[in-house]
Amino acid sequence: MQKDCKYWLLKKEHKIPDLKELTVCVNIKRKISNSHWTVFTYLHPDKTRIELGMKGSGSDLHIIMFGRVWTKSSVVSLENWHSVCMTWSKSMTEPKVYVNGSNVDIKAESRETALYPDSVATGGTLTLAVAHNFSNGEMNIETGRELKGSLSLFRVWKRERSAEEISGLTCTDGDVLHWEEQIWDNDMNCKPLRDSTQQCDWCYYEVKLVFIIFREDGNKTSTQDAREVAHQWLTHVMGEVHLWETYIYLHKVMVQPLGGLHTRSSRNAEEGTMNLFATSPGASQFDCLAHLNVIPSADVGKIQDELSEILAKRHKIDHYEIITKPEAIFIYPLEDLSPDTTPPITATASLPRTTETLATTTPQPMPVTTQILTTAKTIRTTPIQMETTTAAVVSSSTETITISTPFTETTLAKSSSTIKDTTVLSSTSLTLNTTTCSSTVSPEDSYFNVNVNVTINGSGDPKNIIETWLNETLSRERISVLHFKLVTSSTHARKRSVETKSYKVVGKHPQLSETSHSCVFHAQVKTSSNIVDTQNQIQGLLEQPYTSGSVCLNAQPQEIVISYIEPCPKHNHHTRQGLFKWPQVGVQRITSLPCKGNPEKTAYRECFLDANSNNAHWKSPDLGQCQFVVKSVSDLEDIIVTNDNAEDILIIIKDLIHENKYLDEYELSTILNKLADVINVSVITPPLGGVILNITSDIMESKSDLLPFTNSILNIIEAVGDQMVGLNGNSVSLKASALAISVVNIDQENFHNLTFGVSSTNKGFNPEIYFNQEPFDGTVAFISLPSEIQDRFPIVNDTSPRIQFQFYGVSTLFQTKNDPDRKKLNTYVVSASVTNATGPIENLKEYVAVTLRHLTTKKKDQNVQCVYWDFNKNDGYGGWSPNGCWTYNISKDYTTCLCDHMTHFGVLLDVSRTPIDEKNERILTIITYMGCGVSSCFLGITVLTYTLLEKLRRDYPSKILLNLSIALLGLNLVFLLNSWISSFGIYGLCIAVAVTLHYFLLTSFTWMGLGAVNMYFALVKVFNVYVPSYILKFCLLGWGIPLIICGTVLAVKKDAYGMNTMNDSQMTLDDSEMFCWVQNDVVFYMSVVSYIAFILLCNGSIFLVVLIQIRNMQVNQPAGTRSGIWKDLRAVVSLTFLLGLTWSVAFLAWGPAKVFLLYLFSILNSLQGFFIFVFHCLMKENVRKQWRIHLCCGAFKLQEYSEWSQTATVVPKHKPNPPNTFPFMASVRSIKSNSTQSSTVSSESSQRQVTITRPDLGFVYENSLVIPRARAGLSVLPRDASSPATGSGLEFPSRPWKNGFNTDIYSK
């Protein structure tokens, strides 16, 4: 960046308006490579986002709109000029980007699909070459992100420019922001620099300025007088422009009192020193706007320099003196010259005379804008003549030029007060097409097309030699040469374009050469002679020999062909603004008609002479002042389609469809009926067929309900192919973004077979078509016709058979009214038919082969079906039928079908097994991540509780719960971090994460299974069970089995882990998020699905057995001692989460209830850790007591006494125990027993005693399944008759149950 140069900031008074469409163009040149750079940023008025911007990183280009970012990789190289343009309108889902005149594809960095704002907000802040933000109301420049290089020609238009305008009209200036220094705030160290080595030639210019007229008599100047003064003054100025061989035509002049035109010039003048002049006696200030046509095109910078310098001088005309302010003179290149509609002034011998009568100086009550049109031609010092005319400009030709511009060094390129040198592009790296222009015309002008062969003796550039000859020969007779070009031999049949002969001359003279050349041009003749006389005049002038120095040129009479160019004929033109009946108009002339909706307004149309045509033709009319008459589709009903207006009707329909992306049933019916009418009354040529095809494509891509109109659309496309004439050769292909057709005329004698293929169906691009080739990668549809069909070709009226292929790239067209089988179309549709056949081609012995690529990759367990479109199904709406089609070959990406007939073919996919829609998928993903986050927090609390409070983990169920909680905590944490870790794209790290996630998933289910085993031992297999090192063995199984499985997978097939797109078959929720996981289907089903299914099957079986056992125990309990329903329900729910039975929902998520079951699955299993905390921490009395003992203080703190340390209790009075539910269990005694739940107080005894209780059922998977064993410490009681005792005095009391189903994890 230029030393001490900060930035350019758009001045507040030049703020960007509210734009519903726009074009931004800028030229940039990177000189130093930096990781991040900025072209411009436009912040939203609320300063929360970048409303519009262009940035880059390395050679990548980033386009920013409404906070969203699109990227084009490797497009901006170092040390080269690049012209970058972006266009947008509110109907677009993303902006279009053009680099060096060519449209480039951009990729969105987010998954949003639409640009929601309707317009670019006004009132933001715009900086060039740097990014900026606001903090506490102060603007801050983001350092390190500036453009280290040059920037030039930053311009903004308030409309979406077409690709042709962007690539061709490179010199033109913006209409919202011009490239001029005055509109920018910059410091002294950031002044623009000039690049005089580059140039851009252009022909149309607009001049805006403010001038003061001083009258010698001291009176004010009226607007009427001012326009005549300005006209003669500007006409004189045009003659002072010192550019060789340059003609400047003053096309239009508008004059109003200061401020009447609201130009930037008037604002500058009002604020400047011109106010001092304006207060002088006899001084009057005016705004002036003029349009110029420079012939031939000249360098923009030179025109601006010359005109600015001359216009800044004082001028005196008669009794008037004219003063301008240099800072208030603006000269811009225009795209085109608008028609002039004001009657021209009549030329007079002199300007209005001044008078001493003050009454004549009375101001005009209503000043009127004045436009002056003249054909005055200026050539340096040639006196200026003024003529009356109503005709206007234009013509264009295309040539390749090298363009350049002023640029500001570093991030900014130099502009002078206006664009002094135009566009800036490297002369070594870029050439663009631009448009050249012709002069204005007078009413007497006639035009002729001239084709001449000349012979040149001598050396030099033949183009310059011939042009010089023509100008010198014809210009003296007031004949102008337009659109001159040398033609090639292929375009000039009578003689080769260039023929060269060489020979030597005796002596020291150099070798001479003789060359022959063909050229064509248009001759503009200002004459009153008739056409034949004028042709003879041109013929005679061209036949004269020409010599200039050592060059001789000669044209033989027979080598000169001259033809008259006819005026544009009468034309009835249907538009949305109404029917306009244009009269016959001469070449290069403009006519006008009143608008239909508002007769006070005017429509204009020009008869245009194209550089590449020998005939004049009508240009598109200028209907900008006219309002719509055809405002909606319903207005089409009043228009009768004829052969003459068919194309106009199609243009109206296309415009209506672009305005409305949703068409209701009535509108669709109307449009399709009009299309059918066009086909019936018109001769369908390929161009007309292409328009119909594009309209149909737009309908297919709209959001309309096409179900009732599928057959109508198919019939319209079929009719286009059947009736098409003017084929180029034996075939023609028409393509649109959503469909394509190919028509092939068949030679029956040489027909063997025919293939048709389609590729490249990316959004926004037309499909590519090929014939008689084998399918290749990228082919989306392929059809092969057998040789047998030639026997079915009938001859009708001596017409050769025609085969028509159709391709439909939008599957939504083929909806079905009833879909009981829940199948959807999973391919594009391709069809083949024979025109002029007497009947349908069916029951073929040699089958038609159709290969179609799947839109969605087929999974192994999904079924596909080959079908064709039956027009008669579903009450005439049409539908898919499998009759006569068979599946031949199936892969995950392609299906090949064989059919015995010809029609529209497709492949259906069983959607009952397909992923859910994107909306539900997003919701499920959010639920899953939120649930896992909540579970992780509460699992952490559970692990800390049972780890730090030693008394809570004295029994086996507690230890099993602790291990399960650790496994689930690891599973949740790895799942939450997986997507973030996978974003690094490190292969080894991704494998490690996938293995870890796999391991924790398996350990979680293993501990769920071990919990079920422990519960089985506790409640079912009560007797004679002794397992030494019980928990140690459980730990080896719980942590070891998953380790063995994961290690085996790594050893056998390491690639089974890796980056994977999550899909529904793997029980994940977001099928578009990258995820490190098992990506091999075989490994997944063997090591995950089958393992989980086995655990769930075992746990479910044990769960049922335990429920039956509990039920039996409750039945055997005395009345009044059974537990309540609520307590039983809580126990069942607790066991359900402990055993992981909620995971079984995933295996049931099919069919109509799939979405509901997936929501249930996501909620229950992502919150499994939370439910474990609730049932086995929050609702357990002993856990809450331990929290109060160790975590609370004051009145909430419990003293550590009670039964937690009590091994025996002496009671004063003994009450007999309740009957034993289970027999005495000394046989299962284990020396290593440490159950905390084996010491409790019976709720059925009034005396405290030491008992051996049953295991706590609330804890198996989550908390309380214990193996019943004899307590190591037994109570010592006094002997009495009421207590059964042994001879040693030790009492083994019976096992009391609290109300049968003793879930003391809830009651304690």
UniProtKB/TrEMBL annotation:
Record keyword NAD present: no
Xref: Pfam families: 7tm_2 (PF00002), GPS (PF01825), Laminin_G_3 (PF13385)
Membrane topology per record: Multi-pass membrane protein
Stretches assigned to the Pentraxin (PTX) domain: 1-200
GO molecular function terms attached to this record: G protein-coupled receptor activity
Domain of life of the native organism: Eukaryota
Domain G-protein coupled receptors family 2 profile: residue ranges: 924-1180
Transmembrane stretches, start-end: 926-949, 961-980, 986-1019, 1031-1052, 1082-1108, 1129-1150, 1156-1178
Transcription as UniProt keyword: no
Gene Ontology CC terms, in alphabetical order: plasma membrane
GAIN-B domain sequence ranges: 759-915
SMART domains: GPS (SM00303)
Family listed: Belongs to the G-protein coupled receptor 2 family. Adhesion G-protein coupled receptor (ADGR) subfamily.
Name of the protein: Adhesion G-protein coupled receptor G4
